[in-house]
Amino acid sequence: MEMIAQNFGKHMICLWLLCFSCLGSVFGQNEASQQLFVQVLGVSELEFTPSGSDVYVFDNAVKLESGIERMAGEIAVKSNKDWRVSASIDLRGFYYFSDNVVPNDFFQVAVMKSLGNPIFQTIGSSASNIIQGGPGGVSSNSYKVYYRILPGYKIAPSNYKMTILFTLSQN
Hints:
The chain has a single domain (about 45-170), classed as Jelly Rolls (Sandwich). It has 2 helices and 8 strands.
């Protein structure tokens, strides 16, 4: 019995030393670290997805006087800062205005989050702010874009081409 007690004691001492040596290695571990610097810049993207036809045909007096209005597409903005979108038109393709004057309300744009009655604003060759918003992705920053073109009687019959420019700026 004495022999069993001695062996048991030796085993307990060995087990005890083994545990403390493991704990010592756990508590005595070396550490390494790395300091990181993160730089997040102002990021923004503008997408315009056209819908429907980009041809506007004025073939009667009612269209000349009332204009043609239709949904032109959708604008989507992705930005991590407050932002604004401006619009302008390039009228270099128009050479036949009487008195070289573009009618004040010739081209109009309306931008809306959802369907409804569009509220149009006149757009010219100088940039005009049409929408503004805050940080977010496409789910929170998508807008339907409508055009209204009102040529009236000042524009000579011909085929014309114009470019609409949308510009995204962060505030």
